[in-house]
Design brief:
Helix content is about 25%, strand content about 15%. By secondary structure, it is of the alpha/beta class. The protein has a twelve-stranded mixed sheet, with helices on one face. A hairpin with a 6-residue loop joins β8 and β9.
């Protein structure tokens, strides 16, 4: 059968039809998570023995190598909870060795940070995002389903001890669960080098009623910050989607991720690979393009790169969340957020 993958010229970078260039890969290595967050997996992770296994170390290395060859500078390892994999350190070391990757980031729920963060740093994890949806231990337990607040806080402290100069902390903004804690979060980062990031709750197929009850616009926080003397910062090209605000009286920063904002997609610079080997052009809207058959040997690298380049030419200009269309995404754990 004729090969339908278009020929890609050596040196072609990841540019879509709207002239957006992609430097940033979000690479999920597992769907498994040990937390039961209300906005993601409220009933916990449910394994399906009939599903394909997660990508192995060699397959993950080939994915990262392909993106590195096409100009990616940043890889964020996600899940589920990526540190649940026993070969997590080996995965990090394989990605860190690739050029021109400059930043191997990790998104984690933080439950193992206090114990393992030094090993993560030695392996090459250059930056960490940890989820903290409430500074009230009881509310943290309510939201995550786990009574691990103090362990996560110890992990953040330990990360600074082993040499991380800044930690990013993610909090999903929810009207009735943590919105009223905004001033507490501000006080927490007053003298700490933490970028506190508030992420607008996003609608997924399994969580429609929860979304309508809890969603609140991040623009409310943006307006408050500007009134109080915070200043919006310019983005770096491989930065994520957060709008970052700084204040001269604060060591920490505030980041706002507002996917319902007009023109949110205009600065998109990231693509996603699922833990089962599917390329996702957007967090929402499509089933993904299965590339696992091109991850079985190093000799397939040119075909893999050509397939990624070809798929990117079908990327939409924007998502349709603002129209209530969350696509096929049942929950965010299936793609790494």
């Amino acid at each position: 059968m004729q090969n339908l993958i278009p020929i890609r010229n050596v040196g072609d970078r990841l540019v879509d039809p709207f002239q957006r260039e992609y430097y940033y890969l979000r690479l999920s290595i597992t769907d498994v998570c040990n937390f039961r967050c209300t906005y993601c997996l409220p009933d916990g992770y449910k394994p399906n023995p009939e599903r394909d296994k997660f990508l192995n170390v060699d397959e993950i290395r080939r994915v990262a190598q392909a993106f590195a060859n096409m100009g990616a500078e940043k890889v964020r390892i996600t899940g589920g909870e990526p540190t649940l994999r026993k070969d997590f350190i080996e995965i990090v070391e394989n990605i860190t060795a690739l050029e021109p990757i400059k930043n191997v980031a990790l998104t984690t729920n933080g439950y193992r940070m206090a114990k393992d963060v030094e090993a993560w740093r030695k392996a090459g994890v250059s930056s960490i995002n940890v989820s903290v949806d409430s500074l009230d231990p009881r509310q943290f337990h309510t939201i995550t389903g786990e009574n691990k607040f103090f362990e996560v806080m110890q992990g953040i402290d330990r990360a600074f001890e082993v040499g991380y100069e800044k930690i990013k902390v993610n909090s999903v903004l929810m009207r009735e669960l943590n919105y009223r804690e905004f001033d507490q979060f501000l006080a927490w980062i007053k003298d700490r080098p933490i970028q506190m990031r508030f992420i607008e709750l996003m609608q997924t197929g399994e969580m429609d009623s929860f979304f309508h009850k809890q969603h609140i616009s991040g623009q409310i926080l943006a307006d408050k910050l500007l009134r109080d003397g915070w200043q919006l910062q310019q983005k770096g090209r491989s930065d994520g989607p957060a709008k970052v605000f700084k204040h001269p009286d604060y060591v920490g920063e505030i980041g706002l991720i507002m996917p319902y904002e007009k023109n949110f997609c205009a600065s998109c610079n990231r693509l996603r690979m699922s833990a089962k080997g599917k390329l996702h052009l957007c967090l929402f809207g499509e089933e993904g393009i299965d590339l696992r058959h091109l991850l079985q040997s190093d000799e397939q690298q040119p075909l893999l790169e050509a397939a990624i380049f070809s798929a990117l030419q079908g990327k939409r200009e924007h998502h349709f969340l603002h129209q209530g269309d969350s696509g096929v995404r049942s929950n965010l754990a299936t793609i790494g957020g």
